[in-house]
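Page 42, continued from yesterday. The earlier attempt failed because a stray header line got pasted into the input along with the sequence. Redoing it now with the clean sequence only.
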Amino acid sequence: MDKTDNQLKYENYKEQFTRLKSALNNGFNLEAMFIEYAIMEDRTESILRHADKWEAYLKKRGKNEPTLNSKVVYIQKLMESNRKDLLHRYFSDDLPDRILTWKEDRNRLIHALLKQQLEHNEIRSLAEQGKQLVDELRKRAGNYNRAIDRRKEKEENEQPE
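This time it went through. Structure tokens are written below.
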């Protein structure tokens, strides 16, 4: 990614977080969940890219498109297969499972919208929970990605010329 791509991504992220905050403040909970889901999709892809596992993930998916569920499960399997890996340090708690549970609850709510089988404030609660998960995932993904970048830089500097 070149500098203009990074700048564009930064500006887009900034815009989406402004929209997310506005959506939550104004009770547009479905919009909030839509944005939260997109951010989770992006951050899980970023984690796999920094782990140099994106291509392997895509190959494993075959003709199937990437999904939030499959990326989280893939990250869990990677981290469990190598407990010394940085993935394990940053994601071995219940965050991946909480993301998967949130996604399932979100999907259930979306499908129940027209059936009127919703609890009072259920959508609001799920949107707020999604925001907490997004904040935590963003922080951890950022910390993980920076740790990977530092490790790669250190390895490059240790290479004999």
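Notes: The mean pLDDT is 90.
Reminder to self: strip header lines before submitting.
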